[in-house]
Amino acid sequence: MNTIRRRGGSDGADCGSSEGRTGTLAFPGGTFRVESSGGLIVRRHSTRPALLHAWEKPVADISPVRDFIRREFLYDRSAPLAEDTVLFPDLVDSLGIMTVVEFIEEKYGITIDDDELEAERFETLNSINAFIDEKIAG
């Protein structure tokens, strides 16, 4: 399982995968390749479907997260951003995800623990929405 780690210590170490590591991880529905450099994930390819299944209806309103990502990473509040657009790592890198995590914690009044910072939870708006719903439901 791939994990995005929060920055640790004053030197900013411990954010991402181990330096210089490359690997392929498999899971139901696909695989993804992780390459890292200097502790940051720099490329990830996924065939994984969104975490939200067709029969599940999102509870949380994801539009604030969509607007935040448009404003902070696309620099255009009207830019198209579909629920299944790959965000991580295509639009938002691992450090940017931490900005998104802080926004989600503040906006939805939830706490996201370090062990919950899994890349697939932040891959698309659908997966973020499913994760927020999971956190709200307790």
Q: Which SSEs are present, and which pair or pack?
A:
Layout: E1 22-27, E2 30-37, E3 40-46, H1 63-74, H2 94-108, H3 125-137
Antiparallel strand pairs: 1-2, 2-3
Q: How many helices does DSSP assign?
A: 3
Order of helices and strands: EEEHHH
Please count the beta strands (DSSP E, at least 2 residues each). Answer: 3
- pLDDT under 50 segments (min length 5)? 7-21, 24-55
What is the CATH first-level class name of the domain at 50-137? Mainly Alpha
- What structural category arises from helix and sheet content? alpha+beta
CATH topology of the domain at 50-137: Non-ribosomal Peptide Synthetase Peptidyl Carrier Protein, Chain A
CATH architecture of the domain at 50-137: Orthogonal Bundle
The percent range for helix content is 25-40%
What do you see in this structure?
This protein has three helices and three strands. By secondary structure, the chain is α+β, with helices and mostly antiparallel strands. The chain has a domain at 50-137: ACP-like (Non-ribosomal Peptide Synthetase Peptidyl Carrier Protein, Chain A), CATH 1.10.1200.10. Helix 1 (63-74) runs antiparallel to helix 2. The longest helix is centred in the C-terminal third of the chain and has 15 residues, at 94-108. It is globular, with a radius of gyration of 15 Å.
Summarize the structure.
This protein has 138 residues and is α+β, with helices and mostly antiparallel strands. It has helices at residues 63-74, 94-108, 125-137, and strands spanning 22-27, 30-37, 40-46.
